[in-house]
Structure formats: structure tokens, C-alpha cells
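Give me C-alpha cells for this 328-residue protein.
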Amino acid sequence: MLTLAQADQIRAQRHRAVLLYITDRCPVGCAHCSVNALPSSARPSDAALLERLVDGLCGMERVGLVGISGGEPFMEPRALQMASARLADAGKRLVLYTSGNWGRDDGTAPRWTGAVLARAACVVLSTDSYHAARIPDARFVAALRAAAEAGSWVAVQVLGSHARITAAERLLARAFGSTWAERAEIRPTELLTRGRAARLRAVRQGAAGQVAPGRSFGPCNLVQAPVVRYDGRLTACCNEDVVTGGGPAALHAIGRDAGELRDALAGMEHDPFLSALGTAGPGALTRLPRFSALGERDYPDICSLCWALLGQGAGTDPAVQAVGTVLR
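Here you go.
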């Protein structure tokens, strides 16, 4: 078993964790989706390519933790079974991210999910008002029970108010009884204003002041764990816009086989700008004379500052290169 805090500790270590993104599809279709996932979205069309990528991850000794996400990874039974089996056999610890929509209203789960769940150290299920409107409680509880019965630690990520946290507690109590905290945890989370949720940014920010000056941003922990997509596209972080093809070119790479994957991830691991981003942080880089003006501007999040720095040439700036090389 692996709690979210334990997983966070691994992800904070540079390139010890990778997120494997196996599909863009999701059956839920929430209005707040940060990756525009829909039932009709793209899915793996080249099984051999995905197998090569998975085998490449299996051969990387430094990678100890692999998260499997999407979209909804349980919409791709063959891909999910293949990836989870090979990665588990290679000794990788797995974290599965899911909506739980694959649970059944009669309290059961598809038989094939049992083997997949048994390979996971942690299963992360998300719930909020959007999910609750589309996923019946019985189905969500069935997914909770299936994950726990397979031996996985269960983590419920809750977006929303205290009322939603209370609702999640009730679901966990329904699944496991009053001692649910012995096998599960709840983690409150914030709305990610990417994808379809980008239109909700104004709601999230509210009044002026829900932004921060560039100089105030500390290190980016998420740049420590890159993302590998089913189509061979690699990204240096898990920003949803970047994962789905947007953002600066410096945050993207391509890996079509184990060798390309290894070389591309190694390039990201040793990239001076990314090293500086994950250690000193983008705020510290605005102290360099060339980027001082960025430190005085306001940004809604750390990603916006990162993109602004790259837009002004920070990726190849000699001073940034020196900072990143020394800190690495």
C-alpha cells in the first residue's frame, strides 16, 4: 500500500516517478474537466507503440513509481491490463487515477478489474459535484470496495466545499464502515482551470488579488515527474494543457521506442532550465536582470510564470543554464 503522502515523497525526487497517460477518453464528460476528456476523445491506436513505451519504462531502474491516468484509464481494458501487468512485474509501484465510473450499480465491478487493482499500491478516485451528478453513489462505492478488496490503499480526492468532503466521508463509511480511515484517506483538491475548465478561471480567481507576483513563486515539484503519453509524446510536467499538446515547445519531446524514451527523459532530467525550475523555482529566476520585469507582474499560477520565462528565452539563457547546472 502507498498513501498519497508517501507517493508525494517519491514524486518530489527528480525523475523517480512518471505519469503514464494511456487515453484521452472518459465516459463522464464533466464540465470542469481539465483535459477535455470525452467518450469520443482520442484513444490508443497503436498498441505496439504503447507496449514499447511501457517496456521502456520497465527498463528504467531510476523510475520506481508510475501513475496511470487519462482520461479514464479503465476505458482501455487491454491497454490498462497490459501496462499494469508489465510495470508491476518490473517492480514498479503503481498509482491508478480514476473516476470509479467502472463500478456497477449492483455493488460489483467487472471481473477483469480485480487483477489490475491488485497490482496497484494506491487507487485514487475523484469526486465532486460534477462527478456525483453523473456517477451514482452505488457505483462509486462499488469501485471503492473493489480497490480495497484487491489490497490497494484508497485515496479519495475531493474538489469543492466542506459539504463535498462530508459527502465523501459518508461514501467511505458506506463502503468500509466507521473504521474507513484504516484503509482510505481523503485529500481536498482545487479546481484546475485547464481544458474545458479554463472558462471557470474567473470563478476560481474571484476578486482581484487571487494572483501573485512572479517573484513569490517557489520551486515547482511537478516538474520532477514527467508524463509519457500513449502516442509517444512526452512532457516535462503534468500541466494539462501541456499534456494535451499545448504550451512551450521546450516542455515537449518525442519517444517512439525504449531508446528514444530513455534519451528524451534523460534530456529532461538534465535540462538546466527544468532543474532550476524544480530547485530554485521560477520566482528565483526573476531575480536575474533579464527577467526582473516578470517578477513584478502578477500570475494566476506557477505554470503561467514558467511559460512567460520560456517565452523570453529562459530555456537557453546562459545565466539560467548556469543556475540549473549548479543546482542539479
